[in-house]
Structure formats: structure tokens, C-alpha cells
Design a protein that fits this description.
single chain, about 325 residues, alpha+beta, 7-stranded mixed beta sheet, 4-stranded mixed beta sheet, 10 helices, about 25% strand, globular, binds adenosine-5'-diphosphate, binds magnesium ion
Length: about 325
């Protein structure tokens, strides 16, 4: 059985060129670039709550980092450093090696360095803290939307939730639809480049972790504006568009979590620039509605402008 220190040395002590001092001392040391504001976020994943205990370790390593990088993206911050706190039921080195592989593959892609953490025994739990930089005043805050802003979403929402519905036996997906939806659930792609390029272009942003309406709702609350969303414009992936259970598809689209797309608002004159950014990144950016004065609620409208009643439930751990 490997000891705690062997586990850290073998699996988590990697060069951290962007830090002054990485893994191995009481603290890590790092210096932000002069004048930059630091953005810091933590997200925890617990076995049995956020993933099944037998989930593939490589995918877990990816996802634990991806969800944190997604928060930095939603703030418009460039990711730089990460910390990893791990509780492991046993020192299963094969598991740990696969976990580290998934984690570092993603870290390398965005040039993020692991600079420290903690390793203990306990029920499987993974907590990542990610640190990024953003120029002063340019962070994409939830409270920055204004009435008249257009509301945009990247990619498509609902596939991760549809995959979960499949795993729970609520629907039977097949072929490419199944593969696509599972990939969204297990290996989400943090929209890092998009977040960075939206600085100075978008006003407010949030990542979709709890559901499109729930997360948009956080922007509306913080910014004290309402929203009108056009049902027909909501981007739908193949798997969702073809899902025979229409009620389930609608629920996933509006309220399914775990997609990690960005929802953002921007003044109408920025429209052309945002469209060209989408082409640049080869990522669809869809205008789904507008922010309006009034109660901080999203109204969904059909093609004729009539209000559609939809069930609203975002994900809440304590509900
Ligand atoms: P301390 O007793 O000072 O908390 P630890 O023995 O817990 O130190 O950790 C030793 C070093 O290894 C520290 O630099 C810590 O940041 C790092 N470390 C521990 N666990 C991890 C991990 N899972 N990933 C990255 N670094 C880790
Ligand atoms: Mg420690």
C-alpha cells in the first residue's frame, strides 16, 4: 500500500512552471501578473451525490477540473493555477493514476499548473480550487446585465441531463445520440476561450451547471432585470431534438444541469462581433432573448409572442 506521501509524489507532484513554488512545501507560492485581479473558485464532487462511486476515474479527473475551469470561464478569467483536495477510501494506485491522467490532460490543454492540495482517507470526495487572472474591471459578473441586453447561450443545453435520464432508465437513447449525450455528461468542455474573448464584449455571464433557466435566473436576480426568452430559438442538439419523450426533452433543455455552456448578456451593438467570435471559435453562439425591466424572472414566448408555461426546476442539493 502506498503511503500518502508516495501517492502525492508519484501522481500529483508535477512541474509547475507558472508558480514560484509548487507541490511539496507548506504552501504554494505564485505571483499574479502585475495589475491583474485574481479570480478564485472551488467546486466539490462527492461520490453518490455528483457521480456514482464506480465512475471511471479518468473521466472524474477531467470533470473535477472542468467544472472549476468552467467557473473561471464564466467570470472571463484566464485559468492559471489549481489546488486539489482528495479524500480516498483506499490507496488504489491504478484508480489514482487514471484519475491523475484525466486531470492533467485537461490541465495541460489550458496550461494550468497543479500547485498543491491535500490527500486524506475518507469517503471518495474531490475538491478542486482554481485560480485565474482577469484584468481589473473586466470580470463578467452576474450583476452586470441591463434591460435591453441581448441574452446568448453557447453550444446546446440539456444533453448532459438527457444522458442522466438514460442512465436512470427514463429514456432509452441509442447510437450517436447516446454517445454525444454521455460525452457531455462525463467529459464537459469548459468554455475557457469563449469566456476570455467575451471580456469587454459581454456584460454578465454564468455557466450552466444547474440548468439554463436556473442559472439565467441568477443573473436576473443579481442584475434586477427580467428576461424574455424565445422558445423556438433555444439551441437543441440532435439527441434532444429527436428525443421521443417531448416533455423530458423540454425539461432537459430548460432545467437540465451539468452542461457547462455559458449564458451571457451583451448590448445589441455587440451582436456582429459576438457572431464573428462564434465563427472564430467554431462554437455556436445563439441569441435566445432579451433582458427587460421588471421582476427577475424569465418569460418563455412562443413564435407568436405568447407566453408558454414551463415547469421550472433547477438542481438544488438540499431540495
Ligand atoms: P501539510 O501537512 O503541510 O498540509 P501535506 O503533507 O498535506 O502538507 O502535503 C504535502 C504537500 O503536497 C503540500 O505541498 C501539499 O500542497 C501537496 N499535496 C497534498 N496532496 C496533494 C494533491 N492531491 N495534489 C496536489 N498536491 C498535493
Ligand atoms: Mg495537508
Amino acid at each position: 500500500m502506498a503511503t500518502e506521501f508516495e501517492i502525492i509524489r508519484r501522481h500529483f507532484n508535477r512541474p509547475a512552471p507558472s508558480a514560484v513554488l509548487g507541490v511539496g512545501d507548506d504552501c504554494a507560492l505564485f505571483a499574479p501578473r502585475p495589475g491583474m485581479t485574481l479570480a478564485v473558485t472551488t467546486d466539490m464532487l462527492n461520490a453518490g451525490i455528483h457521480f456514482p462511486p464506480d465512475a471511471a476515474p479518468g473521466k472524474l479527473g477531467h470533470k473535477a477540473l472542468a467544472v472549476n475551469l468552467s467557473d473561471l470561464a464564466a467570470m472571463g478569467a484566464d485559468p492559471r493555477w489549481v489546488m486539489l483536495a482528495l479524500a480516498l477510501p483506499e490507496s488504489d494506485e491504478k484508480w489514482i493514476a487514471a484519475f491523475a491522467d484525466g486531470f492533467f490532460r485537461l490541465a495541460r490543454r489550458f496550461e494550468v499548473d497543479l500547485i498543491g492540495g491535500d490527500t486524506t482517507r475518507g469517503p471518495l470526495s474531490i475538491s478542486v480550487t482554481a485560480i485565474g487572472e482577469v484584468p481589473p474591471g473586466l470580470a463578467l459578473r452576474r450583476d452586470a446585465a441591463r434591460a435591453g441586453d441581448e441574452i446568448w447561450v453557447s453550444g446546446t443545453t440539456g444533453e448532459a441531463a438527457l444522458a442522466l435520464a438514460h442512465l436512470r432508465g427514463r429514456v432509452a437513447l441509442q447510437g450517436a445520440a447516446l454517445g454525444d449525450c454521455l460525452a457531455r455528461l462525463e467529459a464537459p468542455e469548459p468554455r475557457i476561450e469563449l469566456g476570455g474573448r467575451l471580456r469587454g464584449l459581454a456584460r454578465a455571464a454564468i455557466d450552466v451547471s444547474d440548468g439554463l433557466l436556473a442559472d439565467l435566473g441568477h443573473i436576473l436576480e443579481a442584475s434586477r432585470v427580467g428576461a424574455e426568452i424565445e422558445w423556438e430559438k433555444l439551441p437543441r442538439a440532435e439527441g434532444l431534438a429527436r428525443c421521443p419523450d417531448r416533455a423530458l426533452a423540454a425539461e432537459c433543455l430548460l432545467s437540465g444541469g451539468d452542461d457547462y455552456e455559458l449564458v451571457f448578456t451583451a448590448p445589441p451593438p455587440k451582436r456582429a462581433e459576438i457572431e464573428s467570435l462564434g465563427r472564430d471559435l467554431r462554437l455556436s453562439l445563439t441569441r435566445i432573448g432579451v433582458a427587460v425591466p421588471g421582476e427577475p424572472q424569465a418569460t418563455i414566448l412562443d413564435a407568436e409572442g405568447k407566453v408558454i408555461q414551463v415547469p421550472r426546476k433547477g438542481y438544488d442539493h438540499f431540495a
